Amino acid sequence: MEAFLSGGNLILALLGFAFVIFIHELGHFVFAKWAGVRVEVFSIGFGPIVWSRTIGETRYALSLLPLGGYVRMLGHEDLPAQPGEEEHHPQSFQSKHPGWKAAILFGGVLFNFISSWLILVALAFYGMPHFPAIVGEVATTIPTTVDGEHRDVPSPALALGVQRGDQVVSLNGERVRDFEDMLFATLSAGTNPISLEVIRDGERLRLPADADAQVRPIYSVAEGKVALGLGIMRSRRVARSIDFGSPSALASGWLLTAIDGEELGDISGQEADSLLLPHAGREVDLQFQRGREEQSLRLRYAGPQMDIAGMFGLPVSIQQVVEGSPADVAGLRPGDMLLAMDGEPLAGVTDLRARVARSQGKPVSLTIWRSQGSGWQEITAEMAPSWDPVNQQFLIGIHMGGMSSGRLPAVLPPALGGLPSPLAEAGIAGNSILLDSHFNQSQHRLDLRVLPPESESTLIPLSEEAWRALDRFRTVALVSKLAGFRDTPARSRSLLGARITATGPGGSGHPRPGHITVEARAGSGDLRERAVDLSDLPSACNRRILEIPPGAYIVSTTRYNETGQRCIEIIVPPDSQRPQSMRLEAAPIGTLIAFGIEERPYELESITEAFTLANHKSMQMIGKTLSLIPRFFMPGEEGGISAERSLHGPIGIFSELQARLQHLGFPSFLRLVALIGLNLFLINLLPIPITDGGQLVILGIEVGIRRPIPPLILNIINTIGFLLIVSLMLFVIGLDVARQIFGY
User: Fold this and answer.
1) Least crowded by CB within 10 Å, which of 166, 540, 609, 695?
2) Those residues with Cβ within 8 angstroms of residue 617's Cβ, 6 or more apart along the chain or in another chain
3) How many CA atoms lie within 13 A of 263 on its CB side?
4) Which residues contact residue 536 at a Cβ distance below 8 angstroms, ignoring those fewer than 6 apart?
5) 437 bridge partner residues
6) Burial (0-12, 13-18, 19+ Cβ within 10 Å), 147
7) Residue 54: alpha-carbon gap to chain centroid
8) Integer distance in angstroms from the first to the last C-alpha of the chain?
9) How far apart (Å, rounded) are the C-alpha atoms in residues 265 and 175?
10) Residue from 675, 674, 673, 693 nearest 683 by CA
11) How far is Cα 415 from Cα 314, in angstroms, rounded to an integer?
12) Which of 131, 174, 138 is nearest to 157 (CA)?
């Protein structure tokens, strides 16, 4: 049944794409027939012809790939040659009055606009699918670039004072009906100050509360455009569930209605996550609505997302401490490992979050394993989790993750729910050295390499300038990856687990000064030898690294010595000692449940609002998109938009059509078809030669100068336009292909 539905969605997606093309070509066809122009071919699609028939003077054809189409008229070519007798034929395009020529050229985009507008009007009466402008979550930070370096900075949403559950009703005085309106308004604002009006608990508020405060959107490298850090409200409908251990009957599409017998009411997916979180690692009774039926399940809840630490029994490592938070006040630091809370061993990130949620703000005691010079020290920190009114949860103020390299603690933590640690079951002893780890997300396996606990380590301190250079990474354009180019990760991360095979400025060492040669794990998981350029480091730091003896392993880049300097930690094992490679299976921790986003029908305030809404969405797609085109040529720091993150070709559009059908339903699919038609209206009216807009401009010039443009000049202009369009198509198709390959 699932395969049948998937095949049906595929066919409908193809038909949706073909419909937009058909309507466009139909517009040219109808006006050409009306003007008395002979239409020789009406074709939809590219590739092998699967059907054709000649009716009257026109051959109608359908090709295999419905990704384009054309109407061929007598006397009209995109790339004309020398004028011939067809110009004087009474049914020739060239013989018609300029007014008729303009009507024929404009007919395609006109039909696109009318059909899209009618679809939007019909959807408005039915209930326009939209994402309400209700804040589901507020990001604390946004990844951006500062002075050419990637950094996480506080989000504008935090500075504005937005809270989860706020309904945004206007941005900079412009009415906001849904998240799409908010996105367009944010992009239009660029990096200029913004203000919001929200409804919170029935009260209308202006944000920021301080009228003199200036909050500006920040360019997000993850999204490729300016952002505020606001997330869409999720529903309680299951988007994905993964079973670790015994399979459950849970399936996507089920709607969560009760937890342990308590009805949930009309709450968001984020609120459902908060209510489920205290049950992480435990069995819980859940009630779901499955179509018209109710379904009860008892399962072990494994959290809302994959937690590698909880799946494999890895220690939890602190990556960042929020300034002024309970963790900061208690003295926690990046690099600390969290072993236990209130004397009970911690079993991963999800377990820690669940215990903080269960604490309800009461003081907790954390047992920490901290680097102390060349050794480690176990300490205890007391703190009381604070209530976060923004996302409505208790927090201690840390960003954390599973340990990926370094020395393991003396006692290995259990897996989520207190299950035996897969590390311990594999024979890995406490205090062993974890060189590196590679998680296979599809198979839920962890490949790792370890050295025995008796291996001794040495710390090599480096300056802050050296660490800034080592922490810097470089990304390449998405299309460039098709040519074999790859992102360059930060050397401080790519060197983890690497074995140094050669150092030194030539001669007995590496042939290039300032370089080292290492054997390290590649992205595929294989060990490969490569050179690492360290010549940009301060000379003293460069020299310290070059003095590391060949055969040493780099096991950490986040250790600190007694004076607080950040260090590289190396281990030089005996010649006979080699790392042990292992592959671990995830512990049977239960069922992961992730809720998805869900569109809701827009409720009209009056019958006339259906037309207002259709007009608004049409003008938004055309007018605002047109005004944003210059942003593609501006840097992100000035409010620019990344083309590789935002543009989609036919493959991407088709994939989105199929995804809408599969996850959001037929009305959402129709809405996207309408927006694609409006997008085609805009693109075809751009004054680029060989597009309808470009040909209208040429026609206007000919009318103005009262004579045809010489064929040679016209050929040159159209050839340039043709090359521009082909280049753009190759670029966006390249983006589509790269996204499929690299998972963007």
Assistant:
1) 540
2) 120, 128, 674, 675
3) 3
4) 469
5) 448
6) exposed
7) 48
8) 29
9) 29
10) 693
11) 8
12) 138
CB 312 within 8 A of CB 291: no
Whether 25 is a known active-site residue: answer yes
SS3 assignment, position 43: strand
Q: Active site residue: 2, 25, 137, 197, which one?
A: 25
pLDDT in tens, 258-269: 999 999 988 999
Burial grade of 358 (CB within 10 A; 0-12, 13-18, 19 or more): middle
Kindly indicate the confidence band of residue 276, based on its pLDDT and cuts at 50, 70 and 90.
very high
pLDDT digits (tens, 9 = 90+) for 347-395: 999 999 999 999 999 999 999 998 776 678 889 999 999 999 888 899 9
- Contact between 408 and 309 (Cβ < 8 Å): no
Per the structure block, which two tokens stand in for 269? 């997916």
CA distance 11 to 66: 11
What is the 3-state secondary structure of 261-325? CEECCCCCHHHHHHHHHHHCCCEEEEEEEECCEEEEEEEEECCCCCCHHHHHCCCEEEEEECCCC
Paired tokens of 583: 């592959």
- Beta strand pairing call for 344-345 and 375-383: unpaired
147: left (phi over 0), alpha (psi -120 to 50) or beta: left
C-alpha–C-alpha distance, residues 683 and 110, integer Å: 13
